[in-house]
Write a structure and sequence with these properties.
- The chain is α+β, with helices and mostly antiparallel strands.
- It has a domain of about 80 residues.
- The strands form two sheets. It has a two-stranded antiparallel ribbon.
- β1 and β2 form a beta hairpin.
- The longest helix is centred in the N-terminal third of the chain and has 13 residues.
- The chain is elongated.
Length: about 140
């Protein structure tokens, strides 16, 4: 038996999939559910404020990075859901360092040591023609 397809207008067999039909949405995982709660938004805001709204890895290297910041779970929610809202399990990273941390290129011990030490951001007046949000390397 064949049926008319609502996506492409052709007819397909009952067990045939239309090549134009979009894939089904993924099921909601525990991590996704926990990240949608207000508790995570509060924790994320606290972590970003604690870290001075800069990437902590960039800051350790002597660079201030204010753009494309993400909050990273050092121990992933999939491994230990009880630490999903723990501020000492989260750190502010730029997108590049977040990818490196997710891939295991930045060790968890290093991230935990950065969380334990308060960020040291020295206020330096901007150079002429430079705004306050420019990423600048300090030596």
């Amino acid at each position: 038996m064949r049926r008319s397809c609502g996506y492409c207008g052709r007819t397909h067999g009952i067990n045939e999939a239309c090549p134009i039909k979009p894939p089904k949405r993924t099921r909601a995982t525990l991590a996704r559910k926990l990240r949608q709660k207000n508790e995570w938004r509060i924790t994320k805001a606290q972590v970003n404020a604690r870290d001075g709204y800069v990437c902590r890895v960039c800051l350790e290297a002597g660079t201030l990075s204010y753009e494309n910041l993400e909050t990273h779970h050092i121990i992933p929610i999939e491994e230990d859901a009880s630490k999903a809202y723990a501020a000492d399990n989260a750190i502010t990273l730029c997108r590049g360092h977040h990818e490196e941390a997710e891939n295991g290129e930045i060790m968890r011990e290093k991230l935990f040591s950065l969380v334990a030490a308060p960020p040291r951001i020295e206020k330096v007046p901007p150079r002429p023609g430079e705004n306050l949000w420019t990423t600048r390397r300090y030596s």
